[in-house]
Specification:
Layout (H helix, E strand, L loop, with lengths): L19 E9 L4 E2 L2 E6 L2 E6 L1 H4 L6 E12 L1 E6 L15 H11 L4 H17 L2 E10 L2 H8 L4 E8 L6 H17 L6 E7 L7 H8 L5 E5 L3 H9 L3 H9 L15 H6 L7 E5 L10 H13 L3 E4 L1 H6 L12 H6 L3 E4 L15 H10 L6 H8 L1 H6 L17 E5 L5 H6 L6 E4 L17
Helix pairs in contact: 3-4, 5-6, 13-14
Amino acid sequence: MNPLEIAPDGRRPVIDDRPTLLRVAGAVDGMRSLAPACLLIENRAIVAMGPPECIGRVPEAHTIDLPEEVVCPAFVNAHTHLDLTKLGPMACDRGFEDWLGRIRDSRPQKSQEVAEAVEQGVAASIRGGVVAVGDIAGALGFSAASALGDSEMGGISFIEVFGIGRRTKNGLDGVQRVREFARERPDRPGFAVGIQPHAPYSCGVAVYEAAAASGLAVSTHLAETPEEAEFTRFGRGPFLDLLREVGSMAAGDAPEPSGSHPVDALLEISPVRSWLLAHLNYPTEPDESELAYEARLRGLAERHATVVFCPRASAFLGHPRAGRPNHQWREFLEAGIEVALGTDGMPCLETPDRLSVLDEMRVLAGLEGPFEACQLFRMATTSGARGLGLDPTAVTLGPEPLAGLLAIPGAGRDPVRDLFARTEAPRWLLSPDRTALDISGKGPSRQ
């Protein structure tokens, strides 16, 4: 079954090349929310949108009534691991380091198996209403990057490199190989190859500096666990044991800790392009001052970094730890830091049929405290697009060509809020088109 031809509910995308008038329960994107709503669509762009009484009848348009559905732009999943799609959920009951080791041992290794897993992940993403991803392609995952680049999805394939201790040169060589691979690939509008130094406990400063200077889009896992700061600040903890286990350090080797929180260490590096930072569950440690935390946030905002929060994966992996605050994404936003949503990989999720940031929005909406629908949709659309270097106007309900248009069940007095309380998948009204994500013909594939 081609997910572009058949929507998750078994229906085909309903908008074709004709002018189309949609009369819907509601419409929402990262800037505005309206219920009920009318949208006039021509050439994959919204030429008029407003309350039904303001639009009226358009005799020359094909009219579609969706009285119990809300329309929105296609989603952007800013952090995922498509090559892990076939693994399914994997319990994390023996600690993160053990879980990470089992992921490493279980993930597909052969090129064909990796490509098939990525293809399965692309299909699951499209079923979730996602048009573009920030995919972590795995260690020198050229086959994963090729599979995503040849698919209908847009985004960036971040090819992972590892290099610390005795394997620092391997990491530096890896950065060069990724740069060569990116140069050799043909242009794909709306798609690019990027680079991912895996994490501060698996890549040394030299590897981060080389990646930052590469000119490619750069992502990394950052401040995901408290043990990461224990390693960078003091050179001890379970990550040191892991490095010795995999041969990056010998039994007698002792790392030279920077003495810095991993965020501070990253801020000492000047990247050519802004960082895309996954997780940031622990931006501060209990023994640090509030001033240090505030300086950290200012630094991230000044560098125009994008933080990617994966709510379901965070909860699945046991975050926040006892005595620690919940994820501080609201404080990031208040500090002027862009925050996008990601799913992480299928091993963390309870929806084996789809990879969708819609489910992440629903988690945040269900937490204690008020939520603002447009803010959540920004995190699921334009924030991720900006973080990936894509055109954010393609994932808004505006006059520019759309990368896709979705319908989500939502009804009642407030259908937009109602969609957050449901569990149904979205369906495509206007099929995904990654070329709309390219920026003036000079999108991320050409940078």
